[in-house]
Amino acid sequence: SIANLTASIIGNVFGFKAVKALRLEDMRLPVAYLKTFQGPATGIVVERERMDKFGRPFLGATVKPKLGLSGKNYGRVVYEGLRGGLDFLKDDENINSQPFMRWKERFLYSMEAVNRSIASTGEVKG
Q1: pLDDT digits (tens, 9 = 90+) for 27-66
Q2: CA 26 from chain center: how many Å?
Q3: 55 and 97 share a domain?
Q4: Beta strand 60-62 pairing with 88-90
Q5: Could you tell me if 19 and 52 lie in one domain?
Q6: In this protein, which residues make up the domain named Ribulose bisphosphate carboxylase large subunit ferrodoxin-like N-terminal (predicted)?
Q7: How many domains does the chain divide into?
Q8: 113 and 52: one domain?
Q9: Using one digit for the tens of pLDDT, what is the confidence trace for 80-107?
Q10: How is residue 68 annotated by DSSP?
């Protein structure tokens, strides 16, 4: 998908420590590939309303380490981050589904963590 492609390019290539400076000046994609991306489902206004958070930026983070955690431990990291004040956590852009941590398992433990953090903080988390 375009979302995965851009995340890989921007998230990984631009993140190389050995690269001192880099600028993406042009990116051309086939029309058929572009048609796979319909754009974001919602905008910031809808997300602010959904999360009932106004007048400040959202505070989020990427779960690290991206490799080596079980689904259960991944969920624990999600819970601790949300309980600690984050509004949301996200997967690293290239984690996908690994043999030691399948996507569905990671999702289920993460949603359990989101629901527990909502119950304990009284805030909407995502």
Answers
A1: 888 898 888 888 778 889 999 999 999 999 999 999 987 7
A2: 25
A3: yes
A4: parallel
A5: no
A6: 1-33
A7: 2
A8: yes
A9: 999 999 999 998 877 778 888 888 999 9
A10: S
